[in-house]
């Protein structure tokens, strides 16, 4: 959803920008400017805001694009095969944070990590199909539950590992921007899921 949100935002803002660049709109803007209309400053500010927002959305959309393949793989794989994706996924998120001018923002990152945690919970829930758990061998069922809990904890611990080494990923001369939020902000639902399992 985060990737889709930014892709949709690019499309929507591009439409608004295209409309604002139509000859008749530009003519109206020049008339407002020439007549020193009180409507011109708000129009100019709106245009600048659209341009700035479009620039931000395009940049974020480009940086988030590599995450799509990880999300698609996570959705298609069985949960017991998913763990090898954690490290490259978190490394990619760090690279986005370090290099993106606009996505280096705690609020945006929390949304992204929440979505990944929710996807992991969803995949774990599918893997732990309740009807199969009730009908299956007790030891196999216990092993499945333990595997899910271990993988969820592995993801969270890897997140903390990458959080700790994030400052070393910034280029020389660039001030490191750490992930300063409490883990509950991103992993709250996962903590509840693990507790309930």
From TrEMBL:
Residues 2-194 form the Dynein heavy chain tail domain. Coiled coil: none annotated. PANTHER family: DYNEIN AXONEMAL HEAVY CHAIN 12, MALE FERTILITY FACTOR KL5. This is Dynein heavy chain tail domain-containing protein. It comes from Timema podura (Walking stick).
């Amino acid at each position: 959803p985060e990737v889709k949100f930014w892709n949709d935002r690019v499309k929507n803002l591009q439409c608004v920008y295209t409309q604002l660049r139509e000859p008749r709109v530009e003519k109206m803007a020049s008339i407002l400017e020439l007549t020193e209309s009180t409507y011109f400053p708000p129009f100019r500010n709106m245009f600048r805001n659209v341009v700035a927002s479009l620039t931000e959305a395009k940049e974020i959309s480009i940086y988030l694009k590599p995450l799509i393949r990880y999300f698609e793989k996570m959705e298609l794989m069985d949960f017991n095969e998913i763990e090898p994706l954690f490290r490259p996924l978190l490394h990619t998120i760090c690279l986005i944070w370090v290099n993106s001018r606009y996505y280096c923002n705690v609020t945006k990152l929390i949304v992204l990590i929440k979505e990944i945690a929710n996807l992991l919970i969803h995949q774990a829930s599918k893997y732990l199909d309740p009807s199969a758990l009730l009908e299956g061998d007790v030891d196999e069922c216990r092993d499945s539950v333990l595997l899910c809990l271990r993988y969820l904890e592995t993801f969270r611990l890897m997140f903390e590992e990458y959080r700790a080494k994030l400052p070393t990923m910034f280029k020389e001369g660039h001030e490191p921007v750490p992930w300063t939020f409490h883990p509950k902000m991103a992993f709250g639902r996962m903590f509840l899921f693990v507790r309930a399992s």
